[in-house]
Amino acid sequence: MIEIATQRVATLVEALPYIQRFAGRTVVIKYGGNALAGTSDHDALSVFATDVVLLRLVGVRPVVVHGGGPQISSLMERLGKTTEFRDGLRVTDAETVEIARMVLTGQVNPEIVAAMNVAGGRAVGVSGGDGGLISARPRDPALGFVGDVAAVDPTVVQRLIDDEFIPVVATIGVDDHGQSYNINADTVAAEIAVALGAEKLVYLTDIEGLRRDVDDPSSLIRAATPSELDELIADGSIAGGMIPKVASCTDAVRRGVGAAHILDGRIAHVLLLELFTDTGVGTMITEESQ
What we know:
The protein is of the alpha/beta class and 290 residues long. The chain has a domain at 23-73 and 97-123 and 162-171 and 183-222 and 241-285: Carbamate kinase (3-Layer(aba) Sandwich). It has helices at residues 2-22, 33-36, 44-57, 69-78, 94-118, 155-162, 185-196, 226-234, 242-254, 270-276, and strands spanning 26-31, 61-66, 85-86, 89-90, 123-127, 134-138, 146-152, 166-170, 172-174, 180-183, 200-205, 223-224, 259-264, 283-285. A hairpin with a 7-residue loop joins strand 6 (134-138) and strand 7 (146-152). The longest helix has 25 residues, at 94-118.
């Protein structure tokens, strides 16, 4: 028993300098739809909620931005509606954007908020249309109501943070005419991180991090700079659906976010392992080599 207790104390001591370093700093966490779907044996949402609440209790200021792609596809299938993707983006007609809004703001967002409140936090759900948080513009007429971020007004999120709430953001944006758009959650998380001057931008996804060779687990990239990742994209080492995620990371770091992280959300407590231990996990992107 004493040995176990000693190990626990050692863990707390190891975490202390990181807690001191990040206390009072904002961390934007993008929680992916695949993680939300529960892709591992543990209760992914409950564990994630506990980790975020712990961050808040030790003085870190977390903001959660979530996707919900698998949940949107599931409801569309149940409604007999075919899902079409182009270059990794869902073609979104008027009916589909309503489905997306219903799933993101009416199902996924309340589930995350409830899990955090059960864990002892004070979470509040908002969408991009609340308080003018996310102004959207159409990306491509061929994609329908798929949007890009035209502007971010972080006032509503900043006020929630200042009042010690945990904002949970659904990625539906609205244009000047009140039309809703479904926006890629990676992009929204990066833009919010920049607008808040965040210390960290964290992507929880279903991969362990970036690899120099996608088929070689030993080629995991622990740390990289934006310029190094630009080279990996140029030579084809990073390709396909990872390019937008990596581009969001590098863009955020170049615009002032302290560091961006790509982590495997299927690992229990991966957020705490990355932020509060000496070794860390996943891939970290910073402006300077670590």
